[in-house]
């Protein structure tokens, strides 16, 4: 028996022929996916950040709705008409959740580089690309499902609180897409974060770059309105809005532009992963 | 089996590993020896595909590492720097690695028992001592029951009991017919664990020899002589096959003569001797001698 099977290393014995079950052992994509799932759920840093992001989505929606209710008596008629449930609840409450969930995407990758875990990971999966594919697949599935729940929770909580003064329904034009779109926007942000993680291999650098893109680029857009619709964060935002006014890109065009931008960053991340020493 | 052929690694203008070729055979423990900065870790990282060679090739069990379908079954590796997330428990760390190959959970538990981490397996690895971290690294290396084991400085941070445990474990693995390749900068540790040595310095192969042969080389005797008449004695001792080196004031180190012969020469010329001590070079000295020219960062005498 082998040292492992024997449970002790003191008495040498001849190595056995591998059992048939052993021969089936090898790297496959579902196995790498399972490995990444174990890694993700066994770290407090990622699970807590995700929980905080989801809580922030719902919490901010509730907060914004309460503030609008409180302002009702002091609003002019024009101001009352300008308030949109889907816009205020979702956009007003989004940024904190978007940043936190973007950080989840970054941490899933840079957490491994910062600690040296990446060397164990890549020694187990030396072809490397399955690791990246598994991380992105897992982020997609986990974040899309959880943020979808949080987005609907935020919408119902927010519209419920505001229902005394403003009426809104999921069946209103564009609203359902915008509520689902909110989850897509957050997940897309996390995928950009993970791509930046593969490209930069450093938590601080990747988070700073992600925040720069999400928070600073829109400010650039305010200074230079001609390019504003084409800035990736602005384009992405279209997908979470019930109605979009020109010159902003349509929801699908906006999503496509952001996906293209992320794909370019991801291509750089793939190149770095495959070409650079771990 | 590990086959390294003309392996080269260049960082900018500096050659960290310079056309290195050697073979590590199964069924024995092969020590990878060299001063710090000699290129041992870089070579090991290239063998398991973490660093890409600038030239040459490293094969394990006949194939380049990344070509293996189940690399953990072929090669278990412990790298010098910790390769784990401090926020994850030993059990979760091992389970995540095992999952990539479909290795069942009971083998994870066996690996935990093998390295004696049962009590702390559920605790965050960040709270482990250096020695416990090394044990976890060894558990990860043995997870796939590999036929080749590569360990970079495995006894670093272990207490004497742990050092003995690693030595017994590695000898047992070799006795089972596995290939065991471990690096160290400590000759004394190697002398006790290894059967064969691959010695490198400044990225180049210096020696590839059985430990016994190095022991034989080290047995070259010399005699330490202390005398107030060092200069005169030195002249009188000179002859074919005799080497005399001056040490501190009034000290000579003589090789090629026995202490009895030196004593006779001193008496014949009426010279005073204060000390006449036969010396045997230690393995450590033999290693230093072997690598002297290759020490990258030698201490500069003031």
Give descriptors for this structure:
heterodimer, A: mainly alpha, 13 helices, 0% strand, B: 302 residues, six-stranded mixed beta sheet, elongated, disordered C terminus
Structural class of chain B: alpha/beta
Share in β-strands of chain A: under 5%
Oligomer: heterodimer
Order of helices and strands of chain B: EEEHEEHEHHHEHEHEEHEHEEHEH
Low-confidence stretches of chain B: 296-302
Amino- and carboxy-terminal Cα gap of chain B: 46 Å
Give the biggest beta sheet of chain B.
Answer: 6 strands, mixed
Q: Please count the beta strands of chain A (DSSP E, at least 2 residues each).
A: 0
**Beginning-to-end CA distance, first to last residue of chain A:** 34 Å
User: Which two chains share the most extensive interface?
Assistant: A-B, 48 and 56 residues
Helix content of chain A: over 70%
Beta percentage of chain B is 25-35%
Question: Quick one: biggest sheet of chain A?
Answer: none
Low-confidence stretches of chain A: 1-18
H/E topology pattern of chain A: HHHHHHHHHHHHH
Order of the strands making up the biggest sheet of chain B: 6-7-8-3-9-10
Number of helices of chain B: 11
Task: Compute the average pLDDT of chain B.
Answer: 89
From the spread of the alpha carbons, the general shape of chain A counts as: elongated
Helix-strand layout with pairing:
The complex is a heterodimer of chains A (278) and B (302).
Chain A lengths: L2 H4 L13 H4 L5 H13 L2 H28 L5 H6 L2 H8 L1 H22 L1 H8 L4 H34 L12 H26 L2 H21 L8 H6 L13 H25 L3
Chain B lengths: L1 E10 L2 E11 L4 E5 L6 H8 L7 E6 L2 E2 L6 H4 E4 L11 H10 L5 H10 L15 H13 L5 E5 L7 H16 L3 E6 L2 H7 L2 E6 L2 E7 H8 L2 E6 L3 H8 L5 E4 L4 E5 L3 H10 L6 E6 L2 H9 L11
Parallel strand pairs in B: 3-8, 3-9, 6-7, 7-8
Antiparallel strand pairs in B: 1-2, 1-4, 4-5, 9-10, 11-13, 11-14, 12-13
Structure overview:
- The complex is a heterodimer of chains A (278) and B (302).
- Chain A has helices at residues 3-6, 20-23, 29-41, 44-71, 77-82, 85-92, 94-115, 117-124, 129-162, 175-200, 203-223, 232-237, 251-275.
- Chain A is built from 13 helices and no strands.
- In chain B, the strands form three sheets. In chain B, strands 6-7-8-3-9-10 form a six-stranded mixed sheet, sandwiched between helices. A four-stranded antiparallel sheet of chain B has the order 2-1-4-5, covered by helices on one side. In chain B, strands 12-13-11-14 form a four-stranded antiparallel sheet, with helices on one face.
- In chain B, helix 3 (90-99) packs across helix 4 and helix 8 packs across helix 11 (283-291).
- The longest helix of chain B has 16 residues, at 160-175.
- Chain B is elongated and about 80 Å long.
- The interface between A and B is large, with 48 and 56 residues.
């Amino acid at each position: 028996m082998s040292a492992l099977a024997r449970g002790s290393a003191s008495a040498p014995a001849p190595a056995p022929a591998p059992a048939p079950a052993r021969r089936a052992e090898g790297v496959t994509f579902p196995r790498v996916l399972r490995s990444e799932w174990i890694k993700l759920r066994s770290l407090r840093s990622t699970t807590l950040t995700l929980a905080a992001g989801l809580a922030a989505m719902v919490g901010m929606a509730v907060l914004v709705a309460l503030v609008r209710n409180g302002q009702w008596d002091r609003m002019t008629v024009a101001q009352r008409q300008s308030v949109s449930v889907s816009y205020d609840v979702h956009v007003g409450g989004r940024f904190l959740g978007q940043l936190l969930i973007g950080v989840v995407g970054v941490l899933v990758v840079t957490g491994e580089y910062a600690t040296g875990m990446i060397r164990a990971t890549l020694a187990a999966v030396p072809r490397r690309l399955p690791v990246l594919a598994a991380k992105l697949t897992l982020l997609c599935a986990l974040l899309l499902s959880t943020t979808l729940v949080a987005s609907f929770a935020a919408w119902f909580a927010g519209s419920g609180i505001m229902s005394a003064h403003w009426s809104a329904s999921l069946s209103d034009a564009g609203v359902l897409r915008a509520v689902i779109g909110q989850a897509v926007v957050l997940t897309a942000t996390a995928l950009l974060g993970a791509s930046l993680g593969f490209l930069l291999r450093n938590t601080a650098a990747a988070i700073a770059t992600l925040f720069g893109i999400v928070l600073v680029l829109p400010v650039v857009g305010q200074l230079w309105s001609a390019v504003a619709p084409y800035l990736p964060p602005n384009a992405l935002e279209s997908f979470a809005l019930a109605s979009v006014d020109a010159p902003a890109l349509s929801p699908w065009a906006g999503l496509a532009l952001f996906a293209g931008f992320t794909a370019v960053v991801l291509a750089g991340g793939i190149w770095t992963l495959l070409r650079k020493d771990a | 089996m590990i086959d390294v052929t003309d392996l080269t690694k260049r960082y900018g203008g500096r050659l960290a590993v310079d056309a290195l070729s050697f073979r590590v055979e199964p069924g024995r423990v092969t020590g990878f020896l060299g001063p710090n900065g000699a290129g041992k870790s870089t070579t090991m990282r290239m063998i398991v595909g973490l660093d890409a060679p600038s030239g040459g090739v490293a094969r394990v069990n006949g194939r380049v590492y990344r070509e293996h379908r189940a690399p953990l079954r072929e090669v278990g590796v412990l790298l010098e720097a910790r390769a784990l997330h401090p926020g994850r428990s030993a059990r979760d760390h091992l389970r995540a690695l095992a999952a990539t190959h479909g290795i069942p959970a009971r083998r994870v538990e066996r690996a935990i028992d093998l390295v004696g981490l049962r009590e702390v397996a559920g605790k965050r690895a960040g709270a482990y001592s250096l020695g416990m971290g090394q044990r976890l690294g060894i558990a990860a290396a043995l997870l796939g029951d590999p036929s080749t084991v590569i360990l970079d400085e495995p006894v670093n941070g272990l207490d004497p009991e742990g050092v003995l445990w690693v030595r017994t474990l590695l000898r047992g693995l070799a006795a089972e017919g596995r290939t065991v390749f471990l690096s160290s900068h400590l000759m004394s540790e190697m002398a006790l664990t290894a059967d064969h040595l691959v010695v490198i310095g400044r990225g180049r192969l210096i020696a590839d020899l059985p430990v016994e042969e190095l022991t034989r080389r080290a047995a070259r005797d010399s005699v330490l002589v202390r005398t107030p008449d060092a200069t005169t004695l030195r002249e009188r001792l000179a002859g074919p096959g005799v080497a005399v080196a001056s040490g501190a004031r009034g000290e000579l180190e003589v090789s090629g003569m026995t202490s009895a012969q030196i004593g006779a020469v001193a008496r014949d010329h009426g010279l005073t001797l204060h000390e006449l001590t036969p010396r045997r070079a230690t393995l450590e000295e033999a290693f230093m001698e072997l690598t002297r020219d290759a020490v990258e960062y030698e201490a500069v005498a003031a």
